[in-house]
Amino acid sequence: MTATDLFPLADDSHVPFAAEPSTVERGVIPGGDRARLELRMWRPTSTSVGVHIAGELDMSTAPRLRELLASRLSSTVETMVLDLSELSFLGVAGLELLSQTHQRAAESAVSVRLVDGPVGVARALHAAGMSAMFPTYPTIVAASADLTGSPRENR
């Protein structure tokens, strides 16, 4: 069995497997870590920020999110909404980052809210004893319903 047998394209044609096993780092997906984690930010009000987190949050992708959250926590934000609805994997490094974010937010008097993620993400939070750490909402609309500050216009 060859790599082309294992990875057929949708139209049933095959592309030769280009990389030799010795040249591919274990655990790295072609396209790099940026392809595995998508971060989008929005400002629903003048005193709140939302961060949509999609993909995999693990030890190789957590530093990107850590940098973004640190800059938001050091600004004039009163509420941060973390949307986990499209998070497909939450590893130990991601759990540690959420715990650190909770601690830093408390020190900065910032409220952090979570938008529910898939069942696996909820289970990881529960297993780590973190399910009660954050107020959790079923949707972005519910998490943003009572935010304070002036509404921001979409541009």
Low-confidence spans: 1-31
Structural class: alpha/beta
Which CATH-level-2 architecture?
2-Layer Sandwich
Query: Into which percent range does the helicity of residues fall?
Result: 25-40%
Shape: globular
Q: Note the total helix count.
A: 5
CATH class: Alpha Beta
Integer average pLDDT = 80
CATH topology descriptor: Transcription Regulator spoIIAA
Task: Describe this entry's structure for a reader.
This protein is α/β, with parallel strands linked by helices. The protein has one domain (33-144): Transcription Regulator spoIIAA (2-Layer Sandwich), CATH 3.30.750.24. The chain contains five helices and five strands. It has helices at residues 3-6, 62-73, 92-107, 119-127, 140-144; strands at 37-42, 48-57, 79-90, 111-115, 136-137. Strands 1-2-3-4-5 form a five-stranded mixed sheet. Helix 4 (119-127) links the parallel strand 4 (111-115) and strand 5. Helix 2 runs parallel beside helix 3. The chain is globular and about 35 Å long.
List keywords for this structure.
155 residues; alpha/beta; Transcription Regulator spoIIAA; five-stranded mixed sheet; 23% strand; globular
Short description:
By secondary structure, this protein is α/β, with parallel strands linked by helices. Helix content is 30%, strand content 23%.
Topology overview:
Elements: H1 3-6, E1 37-42, E2 48-57, H2 62-73, E3 79-90, H3 92-107, E4 111-115, H4 119-127, E5 136-137, H5 140-144
Parallel strand pairs: 2-3, 3-4, 4-5
Antiparallel strand pairs: 1-2
Helix pairs in contact: 2-3
